[in-house]
Amino acid sequence: MNADALLKEAGDKLAAARTPEEVEAVKVAYLGRKGAITEILKGLSSLPIDERKIAGQQANAARVALEADVEVRLRDINSAVLAGKLASEKIDTSPQLAFPFPLGSRHPIRQTMDEMVSIFRSLGFVVGDGPEIETDWYNFEALNIPANHPARDTQDTFYLEGYKQLLRTHTSPGQVHAMETRQPPLKIVIPGRVYRNEATDATHSAIFHQIEGLAVDTNITFADLKGTLTLFIHRLFGSSVKLRFRPSHFQFTEPSAEVDIQCTICGGKGCRVCKNSGWLEVLGSGMVHPNVFKAVKYDAEKYTGFAFGLGVERFVMFMYGIDDMRLLYENNLQFLKQF
Ligand code: PHE
């Protein structure tokens, strides 16, 4: 094929090209190091002198023309792409659109926390808070978890540089702050974010939410703990939901109990969510350990108290039948708008 024919063929291919990559492929096929027009130019020296002149002019003209065609085609494609983007990503800033304002909604985690806190407020608890960056003393030491105690291993702690500070692994340090700044009688809940160095999966997240509760007075008994938590669960899940207090261990409470509720998904028959046990573990609790009172300089002979801590995400999942915690963090508006 002579250069003119090659130029015509390349022109057809260019017209059919739809992307910059396709244009580039045409350019390489004709003008690249082994391109068809390049080969003609390379072969000129073997032609007789009179043919060489004509063929050389033709091939060079084809090269220049094709280079120009490639540029034009590229510009056309790019401006079509841009026009498409401008049309599809267009934001209408005209004032009419401002009304009605598109309203957001509260996140299900926040909604659930507010609902829980309002139940405790109705029982006479006040709301407190505490820092998310804590010292070893607040997160562990004051809660009767001394250095080198194996209980620390279970906490998967994120330490900050220098190991002097850490991200709180539970809201329990909020108890310590509350008791340091107030005197009994005291009834307080502390909602907040906590951090643990664990991999994210359907039931775990490195950042999650807890609500801590603490009641201290001269005559608080385990019956107060049971009554308060039973009432809380019944308000949240309905008074027909069964719950049980199961002996457990926490360094900062003695005795300690974990609370299970009848599985909200299967009603206790056994399913994937409750791992066929019929029960869901929802919170940790117990009577405040005397060493914790000692740490905050409360008189452990005079006062008793109960404390509890619950994971908000677990409640949200059980209340709404959500089987993957990650759905709560993906900020998918379609999902979030359902609550
Ligand atoms: N802080 C405990 C936890 O995160 C829960 C808890 C709080 C247990 C208060 C007892 C009393 O697992």
Q: What's this model, at a glance?
A:
The chain is α+β, with helices and mostly antiparallel strands and 339 residues long. It is 40% helix and 19% strand.
Widest sheet, order of strands = 1-4-5-9-8-7-6
- How many beta-strand segments? 9
The CATH H-level homologous superfamily of the largest domain: Bira Bifunctional Protein, Domain 2
| Each distinct ligand | phenylalanine
H/E element order: HHHHHEEHEHEEHEEEHEHH
Please write the CATH class name of the largest domain.
Alpha Beta
Q: Characterize the main sheet.
A: 7 strands, mixed
Distance between the termini: 70 Å
Q: What integer value in Å does the Rg equal?
A: 36 Å
SS field, number of helical segments: 11
Examine the secondary-structure arrangement and name the CATH architecture of the largest domain: 2-Layer Sandwich
Helix content: 40-55%
Mean pLDDT: 93
Strand content: 15-25%
Spans where pLDDT lies below 50 across 5 or more residues: none
| Shape estimate | elongated
What structural category do the secondary elements indicate?
alpha+beta
Number of domains: 2
The name CATH uses for the topology of the largest domain is BirA Bifunctional Protein, domain 2
Fold blueprint:
Layout (H helix, E strand, L loop, with lengths): L2 H14 L3 H12 L4 H8 L5 H40 L19 H15 L3 E2 L5 E3 H4 L25 E3 L5 H9 L4 E10 L11 E11 L4 H16 L5 E8 L2 E10 L16 E10 L1 H6 L8 E8 H9 L12 H4 L3
Parallel strand pairs: 1-4
Antiparallel strand pairs: 2-3, 4-5, 5-9, 6-7, 7-8, 8-9
The protein binds phenylalanine (PHE).
